[in-house]
């Protein structure tokens, strides 16, 4: 069983290593690269909390040497992995939501911070946290601090292996990654083969572009988390190999 991991670095390599520990061979083809933006950050004293929907926001703030003024703020992270990263970087008061933007909005609403929430985010947002919290009387100031730049092509060897059907499954973690995969790989894979290639996806939202391009063999993780994706990969590999 050989799988293809499409998420950006450094997460792609981390997933590859965790798959190897499960005795699953995987290649990596990061379809996006993070670039820190030259953002003008508002004064931190004006905020009561920080919202994080991605570890990439923390990495961008670290690049900008802008973490120290925020470390005394309560942090609301989209999931356990982002929460863990925040704690590793010195944030003490960290609440983890359940892996989705809706659950992040709910966690913030229940906590009722007594002032605006600072939301360092990506340039391409999959949801609008400010819009979700406005009806609850909470102000969110969204500042793009990073951009995920799409690859313009696939590595020659990866493209060849996709065209010849050498991957047993493809792992997709974000809707935008799935969209980029469809743009770069659809023409490589014959229509009949698209229906055969399995995709392991973080959620229905991630899977939607694949289905629209007739990649119809899609399996969804039980929970939008890395652990759930690895559990899905292991179950799928065992089913395919009979082990």
UniProtKB/TrEMBL annotation:
It holds the Pfam family HEM4. Catalyzes cyclization of the linear tetrapyrrole, hydroxymethylbilane, to the macrocyclic uroporphyrinogen III. Keywords: Lyase, Porphyrin biosynthesis. Pathway: Porphyrin-containing compound metabolism; protoporphyrin-IX biosynthesis; coproporphyrinogen-III from 5-aminolevulinate: step 3/4. It catalyses: hydroxymethylbilane = uroporphyrinogen III + H2O. The keyword Transport does not apply. It comes from the Bacteria. Belongs to the uroporphyrinogen-III synthase family. This is Uroporphyrinogen-III synthase. Its EC number is 4.2.1.75. Residues 14-230 form the Tetrapyrrole biosynthesis uroporphyrinogen III synthase domain. GO terms for molecular function: uroporphyrinogen-III synthase activity. The lineage of its organism: Bacteria, Pseudomonadati, Pseudomonadota, Alphaproteobacteria, Hyphomicrobiales. The keyword Lyase applies. It is an enzyme of class 4 (lyase). Gene3D superfamilies: 3.40.50.10090.
